[in-house]
Amino acid sequence: GFADPQDGFPFTVENGILRIEARKTPKGWRSGLLASVDPTGAGFSQQYGYFETRAKFPRSLGMWPAFWLVGVKGIKDKSITNPEIDVIEHYGVMPNVMMMALHHWGPGKAHRGEGDSAFLPGMTEDFHTYGARVDEQHIVWYFDGVEVWRQKTPDDAKTPLYVMVNLAMGGGWPIDKAISPSFMYVDYVRAYARK
Q: DSSP 3-state assignment of 156?
């Protein structure tokens, strides 16, 4: 599960680079998630714009780092359909694949989604940029500034979005061979608004 931050775990910053650590403890695996809003929805969210991270992912089975956007209104209002835009999900079992998805959660327990993937070697060897441009017409996913997927912007995504970055585990993939500790490195997370 995700750990409450302590001094030196799961987040450290060195030379301006954020390191998120996943570690096996006596209570199980622990790692970190950062969100631009708190549990009440207070904090940074933005309707439309370009959202990007520059990151390097761990090379280990069982790791599941991600950079994603979620509708802030859905935090409090469960009667709506809330969007989730997975800019990048990286499964350790497929180290050269960028997974992208668009989910629609709610109302209630309802869910539907679609996704795509791109074969892009090097995500565990070096830093790369992962971005999504969201506007009134389209959501466009980018790897190192190059478009890799495009979808029409659904009505539920025409709303303020907040940003999350995390190093999760598993997601249906094997964690019994995961390396402890494993690290995700984040150079930056940025959001740009159109003027």
A: helix
8 A C-beta contact, residue 34 and residue 165: yes
Is residue 21 among the annotated active site residues?
Answer: no
**pTM confidence score:** 0.96
Q: What's the pLDDT at 134?
A: 98
How far from 115 is each of 78, 98, 160, CA to CA, in Å? Answer: 23, 11, 21
14, 21, 52, 84: the catalytic one is: 84
Cβ-based neighbours of 106, under 8 Å, separated by 6 or more: 74, 78, 79, 80, 81, 82
Q: 112 to each of 59, 89, 157, how far by Cα in Å?
A: 30, 17, 13
Task: From the candidates 14, 21, 52, 89, give the one annotated as an active-site residue.
Answer: 89
Query: What's the pLDDT band for 172 if we cut at 50, 70, 90?
Result: low
